[in-house]
Amino acid sequence: MIYLLQHAQSEQSQGFAVVFKQIDVPRREHAQHACGASPEDKSLVKKTPRRARIGSLLAIIAGTVLLSGCSNDTELGRIGFPAPATQEGPRMLSLWQGSWIAAGIVGVLVWGLLIWAIVVYRRREGDTYPAQTRYNVPIEIAYTIAPLIMILGLFYFTARDQAILTKVSADNTHSVNVVGWRWSWAFNYTEEGAYDVGTPGERPVLWLPVDEKVKFVLTSPDVIHSFWVPAFLMKMDVVPGRHNTFEVTPNKLGTYAGKCAELCGVDHSRMLFEVKVVTRAEYDAHIADLKLRGQVGSLDNGRSPIAGES
Q1: Pairing mode of beta strands 184-189, 225-229
Q2: Residues 92-130 pLDDT 10s
Q3: Nearest-CA neighbor of 175 among 160, 154, 158, 192?
Q4: Could you check whether the bond before residue 181 is cis, i.e. omega within 30 degrees of 0?
Q5: What pLDDT score does 184 carry?
Q6: N or C: which end of the chain has fewer CB within 10 A?
């Protein structure tokens, strides 16, 4: 070592630097190998803690988002849905939450892979063009089968719940014929032989007894409307020339807003109504009041002497 340094001093300063570098690098490599780690291993050891912290942070964020959907007592937990007011509502809410959880898992996976690729394979000084490949059969099979499995899974749960929610049974207590017309609603209480009707300036009110299954028969004499009570978590189109039906069992007393959810013309925004879920005694009293006012029978459109020609 001494000889080499003395010999280098007799050369130009550049020669000294070259000789010193040639001697010093092997010594550092020898020291690293003596400690049981290669230079590549050292770089991995330094980078691992940072990657672990990033992975932990992403896992915490994803876990927080997913766990926030476990509670149905908050709007955040219901992911924007209102609290269900029917026996069938929780099933619809569960399907909604499950779809968002599945989408969240896919989103976290995709964003995680994107960020990982950006960080790990970022351009570094001295990098050359990477090896070019034409195809990768395992990866192509994976990203073809994985989306197919997810789509089939979502289709299965959606088809299952849709079949249950739209099934019409014979054990309903009573039925209501809902007539959507430009620009309001008429409600025919079929078994009771009474009806109620509104105008754009006076919202009609649909009365339903609590804890009793009701069948809705939806009809329209003019254009397509859509019968929607957000708290029921159920919506169905009202189509001219067709009778669409569904059943719900209101299980919470209260007053709920309803509206037309299909753009149907100039006064679409005024096609509003209310739903009152009451006790059986209050329901019977309301039906008796309708009959006293002369609203007996049924309407197939929104025109009547009671409602006027508005």
Answers
A1: unpaired
A2: 999 999 999 999 999 999 999 999 999 988 888 888 887
A3: 192
A4: no
A5: 93
A6: N
Superfamily in which the 174-292 domain is placed by CATH? Cupredoxins -  blue copper proteins (2.60.40.420)
SS3 at position 228: strand
Sheet of 234-238: strand order equals 205-209, 272-278, 254-260, 225-229, 234-238
| Secondary structure letter of residue 191 according to DSSP | T
- Provide the residue ranges of all domains of the chain, joining segments of one domain with +: 2-34, 53-123+136-165, 174-292
Average pLDDT over residues 219-237: 94
Q: Determine the distance from the C-alpha atom of residue 230 to the mean position of all C-alpha atoms in its chain, rounded to a whole number.
A: 16
User: Where is 96: in which H helix or E strand?
Assistant: helix 89-120
Measured CA to CA in angstroms, residue 102 lies from 79, 95, 147, 304 at distances of: 13, 11, 12, 50
What are φ and ψ of residue 147, in 5° steps?
Answer: -60, -35
Q: Quick: pLDDT tens for 53-75.
A: 566 556 555 555 555 545 667 77
Q: Which residues of 163-174 are buried (b: 16+ CB within 10 A; e: fewer)?
A: eebeeeeeebee
pTM of the model: 0.69
> Which pLDDT score, from 0 to 100, does residue 23 have?
42
